[in-house]
Design a protein that fits this description.
globular, alpha/beta, Rossmann fold, 15 helices
């Protein structure tokens, strides 16, 4: 039985894939030069160039290319934002997402992906510094710029914990690999009885502290600096959060971390996980997860996006019951909650 369903790949489609990096480069350049806030009203390339500190010819070529991507409109040598762009790419707007270019298109990732053929041959990263390097400076950029996409997921996580956590007198929370601190801060906001211990490398923890202060829960945050596989965890805790990090490791290594979490969790506590997962669906139906696995191949020793079945096996080996799965509207992440057995 022939299971092939999609039509033939065209030359045009293949060429579009080949030069997709150019689109990313154009968007990153527009954001870095501060072009988009200068186009809320029609303006010439010369006017924009002066305001951005650029050369007029270079700005004209950039603006025409951004117009070709339909991010900018152009007519009679004047340029302005395409509909919807003002809400997304002007920093003063609440829906601004431009800073995510520092995460999605960082030099750290680009440098690793340039060596993807070597990583495929080896079966893991060939970079001297990568996602598992202690105090890797990329995580500072991630912590600074990624909260915009973490906040909706953090709300789903808090909602998932709410029926169980709402009536507890105390709620001690360990936020492992806390990064920007959005998950711990959101839980502390939702539950006034919560106190959070954020664990990460020393160079990242100031971002978690800043996030907690911004959320009004800084007085309920404590910091634990070090390697989450080795540093004393304290506890016991009512909740342990492990967010967007298990895909950095093999199932065996991830199970080791889950087992550590189980060892400091109260018998009636809860585990909260956030990350990509895959199912039995074809990769074309879950593109974000499978493309993210490529980054893990280039950027970690043994990491990849794990399937829901693999998560179930890891949780069972670490001493947890079956996970409850919660979708995040509009984002490819999954929230999983589980209780110890």
């Amino acid at each position: 039985m022939d299971e092939r369903k999609q039509g033939p790949v065209t030359r045009e489609a293949l060429f579009a894939v080949m030069q997709a990096y150019k689109n990313t480069s154009l968007l990153r350049t527009g954001i870095e030069l501060g072009v988009f806030p200068l186009l809320t009203e029609p303006a010439s390339a010369e006017t924009v160039a002066v305001a951005a500190g650029a050369e007029p010819r270079g700005m004209r070529i950039l603006l025409n290319a951004l117009a070709a991507l339909k991010l900018v409109e152009a007519r009679d040598h004047r340029y302005w934002l395409a509909p919807g762009v003002d809400d997304l790419l002007i920093p003063s707007r609440p829906g601004y997402v431009g800073d995510m270019i520092h995460v999605f298109a960082s030099d750290f990732e680009w440098d690793a992906l340039k060596r993807l053929p070597e990583a495929v041959r080896k079966g893991g990263t060939v970079m001297d510094q990568h996602a598992e390097t202690p105090e890797y400076s990329y995580w500072e950029d991630f912590a600074a710029y990624a909260p915009i996409v973490a906040k909706p997921t953090a709300q789903v996580l808090a909602d998932a914990l709410s029926p169980w956590a709402g009536d507890r007198t105390n709620l001690d929370v360990l936020d492992m690999a806390s990064g920007h601190g959005v998950y711990g801060a959101t839980v502390a906001q939702r539950f006034p009885q919560a106190r959070v211990w954020a664990l990460d490398w020393a160079n990242v923890l100031p971002f978690a502290q800043e996030q907690a202060e911004h959320a009004g829960v800084g007085d309920r945050l404590s910091l634990i600096a070090g390697d989450m596989f080795e540093v004393p965890l304290g506890g016991p805790y009512d909740v342990v959060l492990i967010t967007n990090v298990l895909h950095h490791f093999s199932p065996e290594r991830a199970t080791e971390l889950l087992t550590r979490a189980r060892s400091v969790l109260k018998p009636d506590g809860r585990l909260g996980l956030v990350g990509f997962t895959t199912t039995d669906a074809p990769p074309g139906e879950e593109p974000a997860a499978h493309l993210f696995s490529v980054l893990m191949l280039a950027w970690t020793s043994e990491g990849e996006v794990h399937s829901e079945a693999t998560y179930g096996e890891m949780l069972q080996r670490a001493g947890f019951g079956p996970a409850v799965r919660h979708a995040v509207p509009g984002l490819p992440f999954r929230v999983l909650t589980a209780a110890p057995v």
